Amino acid sequence: MSVHVIIGEDDCLVSEAAKKVCVGTVEVIDSVSSTNADQQLADIRRADAAFSTPPFLEPEKTTWWKNVHFLPGGRTAEEVKKALEKFAEKISSSAATMPEGQNFIISGSHLLKTSVFSKKISAVAQISLFASGKPWELRRMAVARAEEYAKESGLQFSPGTAEKFISVVGIDTRSILSEISKMREYLGPNAKVISSDDIDEITSPGARNDPEIWSVTDAIGERNASVALSAIKKFELESGFAVFMSGVIEKFFRQLIDVKTNGTAGMNPFVARKNEGFLKNWSLMELRVARARFLALREKVVSGTEAGGALVVTELLRAIRKRSPQ
Predict the structure, then answer these.
(1) Which tens digits make up the pLDDT trace of 80-93?
(2) Rounded distance between C-alpha atoms, residue 106 and residue 167, angstroms
(3) pLDDT in tens, 104-123
């Protein structure tokens, strides 16, 4: 018997991972609508009954218990928590004696790795985590997925356009797949390359497009204070906001300094064009001063100073509004 636990907030990634390990006859138990303890306990009993029923007429059977949003790590009623722990104990103790062709999958959005349920079931289960990460890490992975899905559709992005595509669509996998499919239909069967103009023409924002850090750095590059303030507010509730944002801004100024002094040779064409446009708004001295101030600010907020978020906004406005001859 094989047991899989697949966890992640991107339901499309989770579903695709689950489908890859489904074999034989598949029985689905869907807990998406189970919003109270009674419904959740009923789902646990259904999952238990399915787990306890081996395949008869078919050599292989898969039970997929999906959308289990009440696993430990969220708001779980105590009686549900205890029932889950008891079920995990049963799976752990009996998995080795179950038929070889029987497979059991649990998928959900979250799971506390230190919970009793997790510790018990991890003894026999293969656990796959599509964990949340830093915004730039999630964006990098989304770009890679977009390039992979485009290739599967017989397309490829022109240099720099995969990043632009994700800045519009967002990082949600279902939205990426939908927009790639729409792009394939729009371009026709003979097209091979997705251009920047194609994205402008056809691509729509995804259903779950989270705020992109590009919105902050683009506004800084353009020296647009009102847009920068509006963009930065989308991140203010994030944990470690001051440390994260001061680091992002310092790095952005450092990159502009490098482009200002060394040019754009070897740089992604799309990124190079954007940076060249930004550099028209900044002198080298302004960039160096701004970078030095944000480097000092980051060291200060890392040490735990209070009102770090306010300091980030103050320094940002100081950098954007102060101008010197170009």
Answers:
(1) 999 999 999 999 99
(2) 32
(3) 999 998 999 899 999 999 99
Q: How confident is the model at residue 326 (pLDDT cuts 50, 70, 90)?
A: very low
Element (H, E) at 156: strand 156-157
CA separation for the pair 290, 29 (Å, rounded) = 56
Determine the angle formed by the axes of helices 225-233 and 214-221, rounding to 10 degrees: 170
Termini Cα distance of the chain: 70
Please state the pTM of the whole predicted model. 0.55
> Exposure of 188 by Cβ count < 10 A (0-12 exposed, 13-18 middle, 19+ buried)?
exposed
Q: What gap in Å lies between CA 220 and CA 233, rounded to an integer?
A: 14
Distance in angstroms (rounded) separating the CA atoms of residues 293 and 287: 10
Give the Cα separation of 141 and 171 in Å (integer).
8
SS (H, E, C) 165-228: HHHHHCCCHHHHHHHHHHHHHHHCCCCCEECHHHHHHHCCCCCCCCCCCHHHHHHHHCCCHHHH
